[in-house]
Amino acid sequence: MAKIFQVSARAGMTRVVEPIARRLLRAGVSPNTVTVAGTLGVLVGALGFGARGHLVAGALIVTVFALTDLLDGTMARMSGGSTRFGAFLDSSMDRVADSAVFGAVAFYLATQGDRAGLAAALICLAAGGLVSYVKARAEGLGMSANVGIAERTERLLIVGVGGLLAGLGLEPALPIALWLLAAVSLFTVGQRMRHVYQQARQVDVPGGRR
Asked: What is the pTM of this model?
């Protein structure tokens, strides 16, 4: 269901961003420039607002600039496809943005004395990186790991909703969202490792490393 929702949402958003992408390309703006600008915007929203307790503003700013992940991809497709450096830059900037978001949340919860929420935020920070690493490592070995219930879009959505609700006065919403996210992120790591294990069993030679 999450995959179906994500595909439908992306299809709808693509129709919105395509005109913007065309205008930016005509103005000489490159997809890589949009990638970096989007990451800087996320940093401002997360560190400049979210970490200081302005949760609603922080969540809204992060959401707006996180959408550039779709915009730069659309621009790359329109200009003939993503380059190797473009793909590398996009993935790297995603990790920077994600680290800023969860680092900011962890800092905010620490200032509030919420140790349980802080622990959940740190687990999300580590697990989010692990979700991405498992996929990248699998692809580096010639396999795939594009499975799981908590990919990047879902993770940002969960923490964003929790932050918005907390900023609107429902303070327990943020730690609850973080614990939910920690659980599904760790489950996704397990899903991906199992998926890679099943592929590896078919190609590993006897006596090879298990």
From this structure: 0.84
